[in-house]
Design brief:
Blueprint: E1 10-15, E2 21-25, E3 28-36, E4 41-46, H1 49-73, E5 75-80, E6 89-91, E7 98-102, H2 106-111, E8 121-126, H3 127-140, E9 144-147, E10 157-158, H4 160-167
Parallel strand pairs: 7-9
Antiparallel strand pairs: 1-2, 2-3, 3-4, 5-8, 6-7, 9-10
Length: 168
């Protein structure tokens, strides 16, 4: 990405290699912004560097806890409209795609059986199937993973490759 395409006064702190950048504006050094090159849009990522670090740490903690529990019990849980199809998903708040929800315990999956998912069934996936088939296919389809979302359907979104890397 060419520097002149970035908003005037934008200072890059990090880039993801695809043209998206994280940084601040010279006249607003407190707020952390994300520059989405495909949208040609600047969005607030956090109101301060400290808040950004807190969210980043929380996101890392959720991933670590999910992976540890899944490794321990050998299963990943989800919700399905039918016994084996119609996986529970939500629209992404970050990208123009969907987020498939996965849980590290049956109890967390059951807690999300609310509203339109009240009649969904809890499905168990062996961790090997999750890692060898589901995540690579989701990556190919450009879908995201929601790990251990709350019953209010709030949680972090992860690229499937990030989860695969954690398990390696």
């Amino acid at each position: 990405m060419k520097q002149e395409e970035l908003p005037e006064g934008f200072v890059t702190l990090a880039t993801n290699g695809s043209g998206d950048e994280l940084g601040f504006l010279k006249d607003d050094r407190e707020t952390i912004y994300a520059w989405w090159h495909e949208l040609d849009e600047l969005q607030v990522a956090a109101l301060s560097f400290e808040a950004f670090v807190e969210v980043t740490q929380a996101e890392s903690d959720v991933l670590e806890t999910f992976c540890e529990r899944v490794e321990e019990n050998g299963l990943v849980f989800g919700l399905s409209a039918e016994q084996d199809e119609g996986w529970a998903y939500a629209p992404s708040h970050v990208e123009d795609t969907d987020v498939l929800l996965f849980f590290s315990s049956r109890e967390l999956a059951l807690a999300c059986r609310v509203k339109e998912w009240a009649d969904y069934h809890v499905i168990e996936l062996p961790v090997e199937l999750f890692l060898e088939r589901w995540l690579p296919n989701m990556s190919d389809d450009e879908l995201l993973c929601g790990l251990d979302w709350s019953s209010e359907l709030v949680g972090f979104e992860y690229d499937p490759e990030t989860i695969l890397e954690y398990f390696e």
